[in-house]
Amino acid sequence: MEMAKVSLIGALMFMIWINDMTEASKVEPGVLHLAGKVLCQDCTEGWKQWAEGVRPIKGCKVSVTCMDDRSRVAYYGSDLTNDAGEFEILVNKHVNHKELKPQNCFVRLVSSPDPVCNIATDFSGGRTGVKLTQPSIMYRNLVKYAVGPFYYTTPMCDEPDTSAEPEGKESNY
């Protein structure tokens, strides 16, 4: 009887160990997971529609650029959004025998296939790019950064850039 209990406990522990190994094998070690969503926000609608009526955009291109310690591009990758406007970019932490530092990476909007909603906004840093700071999820070998949501808008909602230098005056930058 005692031997049966020990065997049963041993079998259960083995099954739990196998389950843990299976779960761990699903996560790719040495890979950063970047995820987010791209939405269209139309300012021509009423307030309620503007605040709540965002819609996902399928096929938007989102990129990630990682710099090395000398501010040179070490990695560039991109992904297209799915039907729900979601993207997920996997970045290998080791490129050319060097480890990428997530704080040297930024994610930004590249393009929208939508004929109406195709002006990138800087809400959540979509147009200029958002740096990776804190991972949203860290579990075993999984390191995931959630960014955004990023937004596109219609040309009618685009605000003109007023930060440009007056004509005839050159900028030092």
UniProtKB/TrEMBL annotation:
Keyword Signal: yes
One Pfam family of this chain: Pollen_Ole_e_1
Signal peptide: 1-24
Alphabetical UniProt keywords: Signal
Domain of life of the native organism: Eukaryota
Any single Gene Ontology cellular-component annotation: cell periphery
Protein name according to UniProt: Pistil-specific extensin-like protein
